[in-house]
Amino acid sequence: MVARVLLLEDDPAIARTVAYALERAGLQVAHSLLLHDARSLWSAGGFDLLVLDVGLPDGSGLDLCREVRAAGHTPVLMLSAQGEELDRVLGLELGADDYLAKPFSPRELAARARALLRRAAAPPAAPFSASQPPAPSAPLHDDAQGQRVQLHGQPLALTRREYRLLSCLLAGAGRIHSRAALLNAAWGDDSESTDRTVDTHIKTLRAKLREADPGREYISTHRGMGYSLDL
């Protein structure tokens, strides 16, 4: 069955380019120029993915993103000419699954869209239980009660900050987490910490994961955006 994508983009030229890239990737696209029309299409149902622009003549795609997230788990990919980190963080915190700043590669957009659809179609992972061993297909498990992460059933030797970072990444596996979001998750209101602090701890996390599972890279860097955990 062909996945259906709702595209909300007020620039006709960009919309044509995006729609063409998505259709080349085997997806069916319905396009709206205005937030009002996109709401009507979304209300009718049947969409597997939303690609939403932020700046629109009659509002913001962030508003629809918030409504979609409150209604369910349909994946959302945000588009915006606003490439500042604060804008990306806001979009992700409102429930977007991914964020792409203009100008972007249509091929990259199509690849991200298909990745979001694959993750949405995957069966949910069973919650970790201390009374039963983790499923062998899931290498990393967060034992929140014990404040530790297990890799292939063995606990990793993590500092408190490393645990919080890895727990945050694991909770949103596959999603790109900005440095600001990771900083807030692991350090809270510690004003002396910076983005560089996150980079340093990610480096030590990578080293510990490589040592425990050689040949496998779990943490990916997304230039100008942040980090993701790949399972």
Q: What are the main properties of this structure?
A:
231 residues; alpha/beta; Rossmann fold; Arc Repressor Mutant, subunit A; 2 domains; 5-stranded parallel beta sheet; 3-stranded antiparallel beta sheet; 12 strands; 42% helix; elongated
Give your account of this protein's structure.
- Keywords: DNA-binding, Phosphoprotein.
- It comes from Simplicispira hankyongi.
- This is Response regulator.
- It holds the Pfam family Trans_reg_C.
- One of its GO terms (cellular component) is protein-DNA complex.
- With 231 residues, the protein is of the alpha/beta class.
- The protein has two domains: 4-121, Response regulator (Rossmann fold, 3-Layer(aba) Sandwich); 140-229, Winged helix-like DNA-binding domain superfamily/Winged helix DNA-binding domain (Arc Repressor Mutant, subunit A), CATH 1.10.10.10.
- The protein has eight helices and twelve strands.
- The chain has helices at residues 12-24, 35-44, 61-71, 85-93, 106-121, 160-171, 179-187, 195-212, and strands spanning 4-8, 28-32, 49-53, 55-56, 59-60, 76-80, 98-101, 140-143, 148-151, 154-155, 219-222, 226-229.
- The strands form four sheets. Strands 2-1-3-6-7 form a five-stranded parallel beta sheet, with helices on both faces.
- β6 (76-80), α4 (85-93) and β7 form a beta-alpha-beta unit.
- α1 (12-24) crosses α5 (106-121) and α6 packs across α7.
- The longest helix is centred in the C-terminal third of the chain and has 18 residues, at 195-212.
- It is elongated, with a radius of gyration of 19 Å.
- 29% of the residues are buried.
- Mean pLDDT is 84; it is low at 124-136.
